[in-house]
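ok trying again, last paste got cut off:
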Amino acid sequence: MSAGTGQAERQEWRVRAGLLAGAVLCLVASGGLLWWRYGGAVFNDLMSSTLAWCF
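nice, full thing came through this time. structure:
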């Protein structure tokens, strides 16, 4: 294994971590926008019905 390979692996790991963090941030932001727009009661009803539909 050369030094360049290790650097490429670290860069690939950073890209994966960045994409994962971005996906989590998008989910949290969309939940926050729903809460802000529709309020707690509607948001909780929406989440409850969505989870019931999934399971």
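cool. The CA atoms of residues 7 and 41 lie 49 Å apart. DSSP finds one helix and no strands in the chain.
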